[in-house]
From TrEMBL, chain A:
Biological processes per GO annotation: tRNA threonylcarbamoyladenosine modification
Annotated gene: tsaD
Keyword Metal-binding: yes
Entry keyword set: Acyltransferase, Cytoplasm, Iron, Metal-binding, Transferase, tRNA processing
Pfam hit, one: TsaD
Recorded superkingdom: Bacteria
Keyword Acyltransferase in annotation: yes
SUPFAM superfamilies named in the record: Actin-like ATPase domain
Record InterPro entries: ATPase_NBD (IPR043129), Gcp-like_dom (IPR000905), KAE1/TsaD (IPR017861), Peptidase_M22_CS (IPR017860), TsaD (IPR022450)
Species for this entry: Streptomyces minutiscleroticus
Protein name: tRNA N6-adenosine threonylcarbamoyltransferase
From TrEMBL, chain B:
Gcp-like domain boundaries: 32-144
Classification lineage: Bacteria, Bacillati, Actinomycetota, Actinomycetes, Kitasatosporales
NCBIfam families: T6A_YeaZ
GO biological process: tRNA threonylcarbamoyladenosine modification
Entry GO CC: cytosol
Organism expressing this protein natively: Streptomyces minutiscleroticus
CDD domains linked to this entry: ASKHA_NBD_TsaB (cd24032)
Annotated signal sequence range: none
Alphabetized Gene3D superfamilies for the sequence: 3.30.420.40
Protein name: tRNA (Adenosine(37)-N6)-threonylcarbamoyltransferase complex dimerization subunit type 1 TsaB
SUPFAM superfamilies reported in the protein's UniProt record: Actin-like ATPase domain
Length: 363, 217
């Protein structure tokens, strides 16, 4: 088995049509077509709009990735695709394309987990993932704290949001402030000129009896909206920059505090942060500060690799090939709620590696 | 020539191979919920039955619907990607045309499939090869006058006997008919439509009316 496998990865779990190509842990191409502009006027991702856009964008995006990588599809060692979790209809477009592509080229197919891919992408930036690695994944769709000892076979959920994803809170507050969609980048921008201590917004699930690694952003969202509405009701001007900074601080304070605590509790000395919210400058800065203080090495990929993309899927696919994991079957289905504990969806044939990994997980 | 035909626009997941003279292998399964899982294995089965490999295919034809979107896209995406990987042309054909082509009806008739939400996708035909109206999506009662007195084929006709009292076979589309119709048209030098989906409806999307106020009144 090639130890530097050439793998093409397809990602369609949300609104980005991503096609990436990697050779082992080297990024060769990262082509993304986004339908984000089509969703903007709805203030959130509309699943059917995303699915329609994936169908239109897929073939040109594959072509673009091949050209960018300067490789021939014939030379691929495998085709990887996000099998879940994500929007069911959107996932199905990518899975259909990946299956047809792999089948037509006579290559093995690897249906992989979107969350594990978000972690694995860091290999393209910082080399082999340390084992174990703690991962904080934050985006409009996810807020999870995961521990992985082997990204191809063992990903354990430490904690997750019990209500909204962190990115959703950014979108919501941006809407309340009339700043448009998506909310992450614009809040980050305004926050830079604001005072993060101006308003004391609540930190969700940080009480002594609260779950140590779970998140909650719903209460914060409501508190910020109420604060703004009260100002408006009183006829006062809303200090947008201070609100943005104080809200953002509340989010990243909880995220980094819990991630660092999980690392300490589990004796893990590496933390990776992925997902679209990882592009947030304050999250990066505070995580860096707190990791340094705790003796933890922080790894955050460049922003383009943090948001959804095909390169992350290719990265995990390449690792599956390199470690000899079983390929998926041709009847692979898109699974909108694929458990985070399944880094990939092996075929029905015997796959002892996978079975063993599952046993270890619950021992 | 070797034409691969597939259609997932309706509950049928159907695949056929046509060598320019006749259909050499075909497969049809009816399962509205598993298009994604069933299609590729069906292609594989049809090829092995014919003793052929996919790279022998010289062209792909896919049913473009109309049909419920999620399933419809499985066939279109598969056809598009086959075309890319094999470097062969991909053609589209209206799914209702394939149903009409398989009908055994003299004179004018209607094709109707289930559009869900108490609606049908439908089209009117002068004969098996000639569509004269549609495809459209409507409530059966709203088109009763337009289809009155005409025989109707397709699962949509059976669902609404009040509107379509004279329902006939076939109930489901078969890729064999799709392949034969495409082969016939290509042989006649016709240009087939592009493989683009016939959604006939806008995506469901609510534009939020500002944000919801959270302060209790
Ligand atoms: Zn993601």
């Amino acid at each position: 088995m090639a130890d530097e496998p050439l793998v093409l990865g397809i990602e369609t779990s949300c609104d980005e049509t991503g096609v990436g190509i990697v050779r082992g842990r080297t990024l060769l191409a990262d082509a993304v077509a986004s339908s984000v502009d089509e969703h903007a006027r709805f203030g959130g991702v509309v699943p059917e709009v995303a699915s329609r856009a994936h169908l239109e964008a897929m073939v040109p995006t594959i072509e673009r990735a091949l050209k960018e990588a300067g490789v021939s599809a014939r030379d691929l060692d495998g085709v990887a695709v996000t099998a879940g979790p994500g929007l069911a209809g959107a996932l199905l477009v990518g899975v259909s394309a990946a299956k047809a592509y792999a089948y037509a080229l006579g290559k093995p197919l690897y249906g992989v987990n979107h969350l594990a891919s978000h972690i694995c992408v860091d290999q393209l930036e910082h080399g082999a993932l340390p084992e174990p690695t703690m991962a904080l994944l934050v985006s409009g769709g996810h807020s999870s704290l995961l521990l992985s000892t082997d990204i191809t076979s063992d990903v354990r959920p430490m904690g997750a949001t019990i209500d909204d994803a962190a990115g959703e809170a950014f979108d919501k507050i941006a809407r309340v402030l009339n700043l448009g969609f998506p909310g992450g980048p614009v809040i980050d921008r305004y926050a830079k000129e604001g005072d993060p201590d101006a308003i004391a917004f609540p930190r969700g699930l940080t009480g002594p009896r609260d779950p140590a690694y779970d998140f909650s952003f719903s209460g914060l969202k409501t508190a910020v909206a109420r604060w703004i509405e009260a100002r408006r009701a009183a006829g006062e001007e809303v200090p947008v920059r201070d609100v943005a900074a104080s809200f953002q601080e509340a989010v990243v304070d909880v995220l980094t505090r819990k991630a660092v605590r999980a690392c300490k509790d589990e004796g893990v000395d590496h933390l990776m942060i992925g997902g679209g919210v990882a592009a947030n400058s304050r999250l990066r800065a505070l995580a860096q500060e707190r990791c340094e203080a705790a003796g933890i090495r922080l790894r955050v990929p460049r922003p383009k690799l943090c948001t959804d993309n095909g390169a992350m899927v290719a990265a995990l696919g390449a690792e599956m090939v390199a470690r000899g994991r079983a390929a998926s079957d041709w009847d692979l289905s898109a699974d909108s709620s694929l458990p985070v504990t399944d880094p990939h969806v092996p075929g029905h044939g015997h796959d002892h590696v996978h079975e063993t990994a599952k046993e270890n997980l619950y021992s | 020539m070797l034409l691969l035909a597939l259609d997932t626009a309706t509950p049928a997941v159907t695949v056929a191979l046509h060598d320019g003279t006749a259909v050499v292998a075909s497969s049809s399964q009816v399962d509205a919920r598993r298009h994604g899982e069933l299609l590729l294995p069906a292609v594989d089965k049809v090829l092995s039955e014919a003793g052929l490999r996919l790279d022998a295919v010289t062209g792909v034809v896919v049913g473009t619907g109309p049909g419920p979107y999620t399933g419809l896209r499985v066939g279109l995406m598969t056809a598009d990607t086959f075309g890319l990987a094999l470097g062969v042309p991909v053609h589209g054909l209206c799914t209702l045309d394939a149903l009409a082509y398989a009908a055994d009806v003299e004179g004018p008739f209607v094709v109707a499939t289930d559009a869900r939400r108490k609606e049908v996708y439908w089209a009117r035909y002068e004969d098996r090869r000639t569509r004269v109206a549609g495809p459209d999506v409507d409530r059966p009662a709203d088109i009763a006058r337009e289809v009155a007195g005409l025989p109707a084929v397709g699962a949509g006709a059976r669902l609404y006997p009040d509107t379509f009292p004279d329902a006939r076979d076939p109930e489901h589309v078969g890729a064999a008919a799709l392949a034969s119709l495409a082969a016939e048209r290509l042989a006649a030098g016709e240009e087939l439509p592009a493989p683009r989906p016939l959604y006939l409806r806008r995506p469901d999307a609510q534009v939020p009316k500002n944000y919801k106020v959270v302060t209790p009144k």
